[in-house]
Design goal:
The protein is built from 15 helices and no strands. By secondary structure, it is mainly α. The relative contact order is 0.10.
């Protein structure tokens, strides 16, 4: 153990007092989950409102949507700062940091905001309430650190994120069957884990066929778990998982990982069907690729992409085949496949009577 009177002990005590915890959970789970909520409360809801305005011919709604989307960087930064339990002055100062990081990160702005905000927030927490002129020192340090880090690294972080996302999308176009399986299964599993699939998809800018496969995987997990656990959780569980999140099953998965097999197999089926048969694309906001049926955001995102493509002249109209693909991939097939895959596992005793029970 560190001697509390040693330099190392004093440093550790100071960091604890400041609430700075170097933890994979805090930075990798809590901060990213909060970032996704910031994205939802700005870019995603702005896109939904704007699309609704365009479809109804209401310029006021279009304007509201544009204002919401313009706040994307600040909204993400404040959300991350809140997850890190930043003092108020630090939290408010992150508004400027988020704006800078998102602008300098370009299309890969969300990932830049994520990294830059964590650094700026922790720098701000270090000096918070340490001087008699805190009202000046804390915002100065937080904003200066954030903007300087943004200038130095945000463009590179943004380009790297887009390069990775672009490689995934390129590979999906080149090998839609195998990549359809891979993207659907991985993103779907990330959604069920205590990690934000929405933030991951947004950070990588995952759209197009790969975005459609991501939606398929998320829906397979959410709808799959909701339907296959209906006998244990009834209607409350159906809506909580189907329109909320399959993350509710994480505790049960830890106790019995085999319950994860049916919805994951369903994702392995719907993913390639999405890419190869229905050519289902997410041309709306990338964050919607990782939302699945949560509040029907994934489906609204796909519709927003259709509307944008029609407006840009890339698509003539929304065809019945498009709607059929959306409904089958997002709702019908997961609801059928997951329970079917679960049947032999129940007969083998791999899934017990209450293994899927939720405390609702």
């Amino acid at each position: 153990m560190d001697d509390p009177h040693s330099g190392g002990g004093k440093c550790a005590a100071f960091l604890r007092r400041k609430g700075i915890i170097f933890s994979a959970k805090v930075y990798g789970i809590d901060a990213m989950a909060a970032m996704a909520q910031g994205l939802f409360a700005s870019l995603l809801i702005g896109t939904i409102i704007g699309t609704l305005g365009e479809q109804l011919g209401l310029s006021l709604l279009v304007g509201i949507g544009n204002y919401a989307k313009a706040a994307t960087g600040p909204a993400m930064a404040v959300a991350i700062g809140y997850a890190l339990k930043s003092p108020l002055l630090v939290l408010f100062s992150l508004i400027a940091v988020g704006g800078a990081a998102n602008a300098l990160g370009g299309a890969g702005g969300p990932l830049a905001v994520y990294f830059v905000t964590i650094i700026a927030a922790e720098c701000g927490k270090l000096v918070s309430k340490e001087t008699k002129i805190d009202i000046i020192v804390t915002p100065f340090v937080t904003i200066s650190a954030g903007v300087l880090v943004s200038l130095a690294f945000a463009p590179a972080i943004g380009k790297a994120a887009i390069a990775v996302g672009g490689a995934i999308m390129w590979a999906t176009e080149l090998q839609p069957f195998f990549m359809g399986i891979l993207v659907s299964v991985i993103v779907g599993m990330v959604l069920t884990l205590p990690i934000s699939s929405a933030a991951v998809c947004a950070a990588l800018g995952l759209t197009g066929l790969a975005g459609g496969a991501a939606v398929a995987g998320c829906c397979a997990q959410m709808v799959g778990f909701a339907v296959m656990s209906f006998r244990e959780n009834k209607w409350g569980g159906l809506f909580a998982q189907g329109l909320g999140t399959s993350m509710l099953q994480m505790g049960n998965i830890v106790r019995n990982p085999r319950i994860w097999i049916p919805p994951t197999l369903a994702a392995a089926v719907t993913g390639p069907l999405s890419t190869c048969l229905f050519a289902l694309e997410m041309n709306g906001p990338a964050v919607a690729s990782g939302m699945g049926t949560c509040g029907l955001v994934g489906q609204i995102g796909i519709y927003a992409g259709w509307a944008a493509d029609i407006g840009a002249g890339k698509k003539a109209a929304i065809m019945p085949f498009d709607w059929a693909g959306l409904i089958l991939i997002c709702f019908v097939l997961p609801a059928l496949l997951a329970p079917v895959f679960a049947l032999p596992l129940r007969k083998l005793g791999w899934i017990g009577e209450n293994d899927l029970k939720l405390d609702l």
